[in-house]
Write a structure and sequence with these properties.
Two copies of one chain form a homodimer.
Chain A (H helix, E strand, L loop, with lengths): L8 H13 L5 H12 L5 H13 L3 E5 L12 E5 L1 H18 L8
Antiparallel strand pairs in A: 1-2
Helix pairs in contact in A: 1-2, 1-3, 2-3
Chain A binds a DNA duplex through helix 1 and helix 3.
Chain lengths: ~110, ~110
DNA sequence: CTTGATTTATTCTTTTTTGTAGAATATTGT
DNA sequence: ACAATATTCTACAAAAAAGAATAAATCAAG
């Protein structure tokens, strides 16, 4: 059991990108969204490993896309946040908000 | 240089607690501050391991407290954020802010 | 048709970095 | 010596990261 109850940094990023993409979220688009929204590049391996972990923790669910899309390429695996994933994300933000609250970081 | 450019989740927490405590930041007080501000408990080993890692990355600096404090116990090792640590923290927050921006998470 | 190139996307394997715990040890005051 | 306070050490689990390998579908030839 242990305790790793908190979302890792990258897990939060991936979850947020997934949420932003709504029903267009799948591995490749999530990677693109992260880069577009934040400028941060990530390997495709890192994305999927995180997605799988998050699904195993029930923070998101996946389903395969239609069998015959009108384009080349392997079928997509779509992801979406579960209620637990939404709660975890909100809890993470609250933790950070509390720590930032009242703090002023003066750039020396 | 390579890659680990981003702060981990717990690294951010520790850095923020250190910043909040200003010149009263040392291992034990940081652990206490995290718990008081967020309710999150952490082992003392986790705190120091992270503190050491953060110092190695030059995100914070440490110095030993005076040799003869008026109390029992081993001398304290005080920590404070470096300019790079401040920047890293601000960068982390900006990343999250960008991902949260315009997103509404509906609790189903 | 049937094969091969092309496109799009996911899976797999490996390694490094972070996160976590708790026992052990060190330093100082009484 | 003992109590109090704090840090260091040791070991291991989980998360992050990279990139090659593989898979599935479409399309253009021949």
């Amino acid at each position: 059991m242990s305790k790793g109850n908190y979302l890792g940094e990258f897990e939060q990023v991936v979850l947020l990108a997934t949420a932003r993409l709504a029903d267009e979220a799948y591995g490749m688009s999530i990677r693109r969204e992260i880069e577009e929204a934040t400028g941060r590049k990530s390997s495709i391996g890192a994305i999927y490993a995180t997605l799988d972990r998050l699904e195993a923790k029930t923070f998101l669910e996946s389903r395969m896309g239609e069998a015959t899309p009108k384009r080349g390429g392997r079928p997509k695996r779509y992801f979406r946040l579960s209620p637990a994933g939404t709660r975890a994300l909100l809890a993470s933000r609250r933790t950070m908000d509390r720590l930032w609250d009242g703090l002023e970081l003066e750039p020396e």
